[in-house]
Design a protein that fits this description.
The chain is of the alpha/beta class. Helix content is about 45%, strand content about 15%. A hairpin with a 2-residue loop joins strand 3 and strand 4. The protein starts with a strand and ends with a helix. The structure holds pyridoxal-5'-phosphate (PLP). Pyridoxal-5'-phosphate (PLP) binds next to helix 12.
Length: about 425
Amino acid sequence: MYFYSNRDKSRTSKFNLRDAAFLGLAPDGGLFMPEYYPQVDMKRVEELAEISFADMASYLACTIFGDDVNPEEIDAIVRDAFNFEVPLVEIGKGVKVLELFHGPTFAFKDFGGRFMGRMLGLLNKGGDPIIVLTATSGDTGSAVAHGFWKVPGVKVIVLYPKGKVSDFQEAQMTTLGENIFPLAVNGTFDDCQALVKASFNNKDLRSRVKITSANSINILRWIPQSFYYFWGYCQWKRQGGVGDPDIVVPSGNYGNITAGMLAWKMGMPMNRFIAGSNANDIVPAFLESGSYNPKPSVQTVANAMDVGAPSNFERLLYLFDDDYSKIILNVKGYSYSDAEIKDAIKEIYDNCHYLSDPHSAVGYLSYKAADASGFYLSTAHPSKFASVINNSIGFNPELPVEFKKILNLKRTFGQLNNSEEELEKYIEKI
Ligand SMILES: *Cc1c(COP(=O)(O)O)cnc(C)c1O
């Protein structure tokens, strides 16, 4: 399987899995897409889903990566990466939620992070040690750090703005140790990103040290997110779902929902995809008008979706052959204000006795608005957003024991001024 940039319409530059994974972004600035959509046998997928998520995911991963990686190694990676439950829960009549937050960082990004960490370690085996350099405002950093934790031959440097991530997010990044090197930067998230960018542009440094990124657009993070759509479909069928499901996805950068569209292209039946957004309504507005107008993001209570220029938008276009009429036939979009999101958290609690984090509440609202029949994805555990929940229902969610444990562990991190030279020295030292 080769990968091409979505912008390379005449397919002049092909990349193998390893190159596409280490590059992240294509050299022309586009996003990597598989050269074709491998077709799955849905009967086989349903049979394997009867056994376990890992059995099903192993088949899917081999269907995509089996030409490039030994299927036994893929199987081992999948079993190690996806070692947590993925339940489809009915919270009210006809309302089902696929809970994607049972991994170690309590958000769906664990699927991509854990798969990528292990695959990159394997693809780099026998090569020089590699440094993954990533900047985070909180969530991505912890998923990446956990995803690469203890992967041989890989060290991870996570830059985060000092004092600007939540207590829990900091605990998640700074209590792992081993090959994870968190750096508290005297600056903002933008400064962290600029520092990472400067290192990538530093040819001299790159000639001495092998560095790569773990961007959310990386195919090794993007593709495995398609697996849980197949799973959700199988569980939904098994629970008596009739016809093809509507699938509702709380969205920010549109990596998650476009991975669902990849599943559909590979043979998973669905009726409609429904994108839910917060006040950053760029894609719902595009679906409404046909014109794409990215703009600066605004801060909301569902902050992991505060994106004004979704980085996977081009994948969305590509998956529908750049044809707006095909897109609106298959995709709907809704957007919600903070007040509506907070009201929904209360409504879900009052009516369904179910605690929802603000992102998933956007899923719930969109599901209702679309009069959907299927399920919505829950992207984070409610305890990660305790203060928003407190604000909506008047008390804090009970923290799971794993949460409390992490908060009490010893934290270790480096400190960095907003300085390219300091970062360069640090990279060479570790
Ligand atoms: C990252 C994230 C999202 C948005 O996912 P995209 O793939 O960027 O659309 C939604 N909810 C939570 C909790 C997230 O962490």
